[in-house]
């Protein structure tokens, strides 16, 4: 049994069954089913994403001190790395801790995208062998109802409204996730060190690059995928906002 088979049994089939369950019990409305699946998936991933979000917040908190270390030890990379690790250790931060959650989220996201793509490509009866319960199975003549609001979820958004909304929500999330940019801008203005300018410009590019990419990619994808992307970003935005409020209180 290969990795593809393991992913299919452990992630693909459970996600497919959950989506079909929501589709049937929400009035055969695929848009509502995708929304319900998005909320459920993001809620399940909270124990995984929360430590990663806290780690990112801690890294932003340490950014000014890291910048000072980079200026102080810019000619000695070995000592710089040592001082950075000491700083992380003193503040109880492990920069590698967020890698595994990010990889797990990416794997689930890819599989979920594949489920949605298959839903749009195949008739419902195609999935019967993978559905757990008889009440989830479809007749050979059944077709998925892909109509939602003004869109056909299996096709591109004709007015680009959803990709733009997804891009705007990603922009807000980026700004919430990288509040350190304003501090870096002030440091860059006050100091002649080019390294500060580089750090500021990199963070500024990150804030705007992802939203622009979201819009351009979303324009080419079926609306159902963009709907998931948009709703997942909104959920992430809410998580980040709540976390930022708690950090400000502390």
Short description:
Its main location: membrane. The chain is mostly helical.
How large a portion of the residues is in β-strands, by DSSP E?
A: under 5%
Total number of domains: 1
Q: Give Rg in angstroms.
A: 22 Å
- How many strands appear in the DSSP assignment? 2
Class by SSE composition: mainly alpha
Keywords: Cell membrane, Chaperone, Membrane, Protein transport, Transmembrane, Transmembrane helix, Transport
Main location: membrane
Membrane topology: Multi-pass membrane protein
Subcellular location: Cell membrane; Membrane
Mind explaining what this structure looks like?
The chain is mainly α. It is built from 9 helices and 2 strands. The chain has a two-stranded antiparallel sheet with strand order 1-2. Strand 1 (147-148) and strand 2 form a beta hairpin. The longest helix has 27 residues, at 46-72. It is elongated.
Q: Which keywords apply here?
A:
9 helices; elongated; two-stranded antiparallel sheet; 2% strand; mainly alpha; 250 residues; membrane insertase activity
Q: What order do the helices and strands come in, and which of them pair?
A:
Layout: H1 3-25, H2 30-44, H3 46-72, H4 77-90, H5 99-121, E1 147-148, E2 151-152, H6 161-177, H7 181-190, H8 194-220, H9 223-249
Antiparallel strand pairs: 1-2
Keywords: Cell membrane, Chaperone, Membrane, Protein transport, Transmembrane, Transmembrane helix, Transport
GO cellular component, one term: plasma membrane
Pfam families: 60KD_IMP
